[in-house]
Specification:
The structure holds two protein chains of two kinds. By secondary structure, chain A is mostly helical. Chain A is built from three helices and one strand, in the order αααβ. Chain A is flat and about 60 Å long. Chain B is mainly alpha-helical. Chain B folds into four domains: 238 residues, no CATH class; 249 residues, no CATH class; 34 residues; 59 residues, no CATH class. Chain B is built from 24 helices and three strands. Chain B has a two-stranded antiparallel sheet with strand order 1-2. Chain B is globular. Chain B starts with 9 loop residues before the first helix and ends with a helix. In chain B, 51% of the residues are buried. The chains are: A mainly alpha, B mainly alpha. β1 of chain A pairs antiparallel with β3 of chain B, so a sheet runs across the interface.
C-alpha cells in the first residue's frame, strides 16, 4: 500500500526528516521577523521577534509539567481503584 | 386546538425511522439507515424562517418549530452529523442501537427548534433517556454502571432545569425560550443556566462526560460526542449570550480538559476531555456575547462536531478492530491501520486549528473576539489551551497508537487491520468536510447567524498559529519520556458521587441493618409475639367476614400485578425501555386525538 510505503520511506530517512523540520521551524521564525506585517497584533508583546514560537514552546512545557505535578498529587490511581463494578 | 399548519418536524422523520429500523432486515435496513438521516437533513434545508408547529396544550401555546438563522446552523450540522454517524454504524446489527441514536438526535433537533421551555424540556429529557442506551449497548459491567451514573446526573440536571422553568413561569407567566436579561439574572435564570451548563459539561458538572463517553459503544460515542454538549451550546447562545460569568468558566474548561488529557491513558477518554476543552471555547464565546463571538461559538460548534466525530471514528475503529483503546495496549499500528491513522490525523490537525483545516477558521473567531473585547488574559489562556490541544489530539493520540512503542499483545496485533468499508467511507467523508471548511471559508461563514466580517487567512494569523503549533511539537518530542502513557486512571469530580453512593450503601448495609436487627430482637424479647398472634386471629375474622367483597377486588388486582411482574424481567434497562415505549405511545395517542 502506498500510504504505508510513504510512512516507511520517511522513517528510513528519519534524520533527514528531522533536519528538514528544524529548517522549517527556523524559516518560520525568520519569516515572522522579516515578512509578517504585525499590524494585526493585539498586544505590544506580540511585536517581539518570535513571540508566538516562545509562547507555544513554553505553553507546551507548562502544560506537560503542571499536569504531571497535579497528577502525582494523588489524582492518578491504579486502574482498579473503583473496583470491578 | 389543532396544529396551526401541517408542519413536518425533522425530528419526526428520525423518530419514524427509529420505529422502522427494527422491522427491516438486510439491504432494506442498510437503505433505511442512509435514507432516514438524508431525509431529515433535506427537511432541515427546506425549512422556512418563522414559527411553525404551534400546538395548543391546556392553557399554553407550544412552539415546536422556531426556525431562524441560529436554529438553522445547529439543525444543519446535527442532521449532517447524523448522516455521517449512521454511515459509520451501517455494519451494526443491533437495531436498538440505531433506534437509540436516532431518538437521541431527534431530541437534539427538538431542543434546537423549540420555541418554549416546555417543548425544550420534553426533548431535553428524550436526549438523556435515548443516549444512555448508546452506553448500555456495549453490555460491559462498567458500561452498565457508567450508564446509570450518566442517567442520574442528567436526571438531576433535568430537575434543576425544570425548577428554573417553573419558577420563571410563576414569575413572568411566560414559557418563551428567549434571551434572558443577562445583566440582572434572577434565581430562575440561574437554575436554567445550571441545567444547560451541566449538559455543556462545565466543571464541576462535567465528570459524567469522560466517564460515560469512554464506556459507550464504538458507534455510540460518535453520536454522543456531537449532540449533548453542542445542543447545550445552542441553548446557551439562545438564552445567555453575554452572561459574563461564562467567560471565566469557558476558559477554565478549556484548560481543565487539557490538563486531564495529559494524564489520560484511554484514547477515547482523552478525546472526551478534549470535548470539555473545546466546548470551553464555545462557552467563553457565548459569555463574550458580541456578534463575532456568537458567530465564533456557532462556527466552532459546527467544526467541532465534525472533527470530534472524526476523531472518535478513528479511535473507535481501532477499538472495533483490536478491542483496545488504551495507549498502554496499543502502538506501532501504522502498517496495520494506515487509513485510520490518516483520518485520525486529519481530525487531530482540525481540532488543533492548523491552517487549511476546519478548526483554524472557527476557533480563531472566538479568540479574536476576546482580544477585540480587551479580554486579553482570557484570550491568551485560550491560546495556551490550543497548544495543549495539538499536544494531545494532534500528537499524543496518533503517535502512541500508530507509532511509539509497540505495546500490542499478539492477539491485538493479529486482529488489527483497517476497518469495514462503511467506517472508512464515513471517516473519508468527514475528513473531506474538515478540509473543505478549512479551505473554503464562505461555506461555513454563510451559515452563521450574523454577517461575518472576519478573515482568518492573514499572514499574521497563519504565522502566529504555525509558530504555536510547531513549537508545541518541539516540546512534545523533547519531553516524550514524561508523556509516556501509564496504566492509571485519574480521579475527577465523579469521585464524589461514586464514593458518596458507596457511603450510602455502607450506611444501609451496616448501621441500619444492625438497628433493624436490634429492634426485631426487642419485639421478640418483650413478648410482642403473643400480641401479634392474637392480632392475627382478629385479622382472620375481619378478613373473612367483613372484607370478603372488597378483598375479591383486591385479589384480582394483585393477580394482575403478579402477571405484570412476570412480564417484566427485572432488568433495569429493559424496564426503562418499556416505560419509555409506554410513555411514547401515550403521547402519540394524545397527539392523534388532538389533531
Amino acid at each position: 500500500m502506498k500510504l504505508v510505503a510513504l510512512i516507511e520511506f520517511l522513517r528510513r530517512h528519519l534524520k533527514l526528516v528531522v533536519r528538514l523540520c528544524w529548517l522549517v521551524l527556523a524559516l518560520l521564525v525568520v519569516g515572522d521577523w522579516l515578512l509578517v506585517d504585525k499590524e494585526h497584533a493585539h498586544t505590544p508583546a506580540e511585536h517581539w521577534f518570535g513571540f508566538w514560537s516562545v509562547f507555544g514552546f513554553v505553553a507546551c512545557v507548562v502544560i506537560i509539567f503542571f499536569s504531571k505535578w497535579y497528577g502525582h498529587r494523588g489524582i492518578m490511581k491504579r486502574e482498579d481503584y473503583y473496583g470491578d463494578e | 386546538m389543532a396544529m396551526s399548519d401541517l408542519w413536518l418536524h425533522p425530528a419526526v422523520i428520525l423518530l419514524a425511522g427509529a420505529v422502522l429500523a427494527p422491522l427491516l432486515r438486510g439491504r432494506a435496513r442498510t437503505a433505511l439507515l442512509v435514507l432516514v438521516p438524508v431525509l431529515a437533513f433535506a427537511r432541515v434545508l427546506c425549512l422556512e424562517p418563522g414559527a411553525h408547529g404551534v400546538v395548543g396544550f391546556l392553557d399554553w401555546k407550544l412552539t415546536f418549530g422556531r426556525v431562524d438563522k441560529l436554529s438553522q446552523v445547529f439543525g444543519y450540522i446535527m442532521t449532517l452529523m447524523c448522516i455521517l454517524g449512521s454511515v459509520y454504524a451501517l455494519h451494526v446489527k443491533n437495531p436498538a442501537e440505531h433506534a437509540a441514536a436516532w431518538c437521541y438526535v431527534a431530541g437534539s433537533l427538538g431542543v434546537i427548534y423549540a420555541g418554549d421551555y416546555l417543548v425544550l424540556f420534553l426533548f431535553w429529557e428524550l436526549m438523556a433517556f435515548a443516549s444512555v442506551f448508546l452506553i448500555w449497548q456495549r453490555r460491559r459491567a462498567q458500561s452498565m454502571a457508567a450508564g446509570i451514573r450518566y442517567l442520574l446526573v442528567h436526571v438531576f440536571g433535568g430537575v434543576v432545569l425544570l425548577g428554573g422553568i417553573l419558577l420563571r413561569y410563576h414569575a413572568t407567566g411566560s414559557l418563551a425560550f428567549d434571551a434572558v436579561d443577562v445583566a440582572h439574572p434572577d434565581l430562575a435564570s440561574w437554575l436554567i443556566l445550571i441545567g444547560f451548563i451541566l449538559n455543556a459539561a462545565v466543571p464541576p458538572l462535567h465528570a459524567w462526560l469522560p466517564d460515560a463517553y469512554s464506556e459507550a459503544t464504538v458507534t455510540g460515542s460518535v453520536f454522543l460526542c456531537a449532540f449533548t454538549t453542542k445542543t447545550a451550546v445552542y441553548a446557551l447562545c439562545r438564552a445567555f449570550a453575554g452572561l459574563d460569568v461564562l467567560v471565566p468558566l469557558g476558559v477554565a474548561m478549556a484548560i481543565y480538559g487539557v490538563i486531564y488529557a495529559v494524564l489520560e491513558n484511554d484514547a477515547r477518554k482523552l478525546l472526551a476531555y478534549h470535548i470539555i476543552s473545546q466546548v470551553g471555547y464555545m462557552v467563553a464565546g457565548v459569555g463574550l456575547g458580541t456578534q463575532m463571538a456568537i458567530n465564533g461559538a456557532c462556527a466552532h460548534a459546527f467544526a467541532h462536531i465534525l472533527y470530534k466525530g472524526l476523531l472518535f471514528m478513528g479511535t473507535g475503529s481501532v477499538l472495533h478492530m483490536t478491542g483496545q483503546s488504551k495507549f498502554t495496549e496499543l502502538g506501532g499500528l501504522y502498517s496495520k491501520m494506515p487509513w485510520a491513522f490518516l483520518f485520525t490525523l486529519v481530525g487531530g490537525l482540525s481540532i488543533s486549528a492548523f491552517p487549511l483545516f476546519s478548526g483554524f477558521v472557527s476557533k480563531s473567531m472566538i479568540v479574536a473576539a476576546g482580544f477585540e473585547e480587551h479580554r486579553t488574559t482570557a484570550a491568551f489562556l485560550l491560546m495556551l489551551a490550543s497548544s495543549g490541544t495539538f499536544l494531545h489530539t494532534g500528537l499524543k493520540v496518533p503517535y502512541f497508537i500508530w507509532f511509539g512503542k509497540n505495546n500490542c499483545s499478539p492477539a491485538t496485533w493479529e486482529r488489527a487491520k483497517d476497518p469495514p468499508w462503511n467506517m472508512n467511507l464515513a471517516m473519508a467523508l468527514t475528513a473531506g468536510l474538515c478540509l473543505w471548511i478549512g479551505c473554503y471559508t464562505p461555506y461555513l461563514y454563510k451559515l452563521l447567524p450574523y454577517a461575518v466580517d472576519y478573515h482568518p487567512y492573514t499572514a499574521y494569523h497563519v504565522s502566529e498559529t504555525l509558530q504555536i503549533l510547531l513549537f508545541t511539537a518541539v516540546g512534545f518530542f523533547l519531553f516524550l519520556k514524561p508523556l509516556q502513557p501509564t496504566a492509571t486512571i485519574s480521579l475527577d469530580m465523579d469521585w464524589f458521587y461514586r464514593m458518596g453512593g458507596r457511603a450510602v450503601q455502607w450506611l444501609v448495609n451496616k448501621p441500619l441493618q444492625a438497628f433493624d436487627t436490634w429492634v426485631g430482637e426487642l419485639y421478640r424479647v418483650c413478648g410482642l409475639a403473643w400480641l401479634m398472634a392474637s392480632a392475627r386471629v382478629s385479622a382472620w375474622f375481619d378478613g373473612r367476614v367483613i372484607d370478603g367483597v372488597v378483598d375479591g377486588v383486591a385479589r384480582g388486582v394483585r393477580a394482575a400485578g403478579d402477571r405484570l411482574r412476570h412480564v417484566q424481567t427485572g432488568q433495569f434497562q429493559n424496564n426503562l425501555a418499556g416505560a419509555l415505549a409506554v410513555v411514547a405511545l401515550l403521547v402519540l395517542a394524545y397527539a392523534l386525538t388532538r389533531l
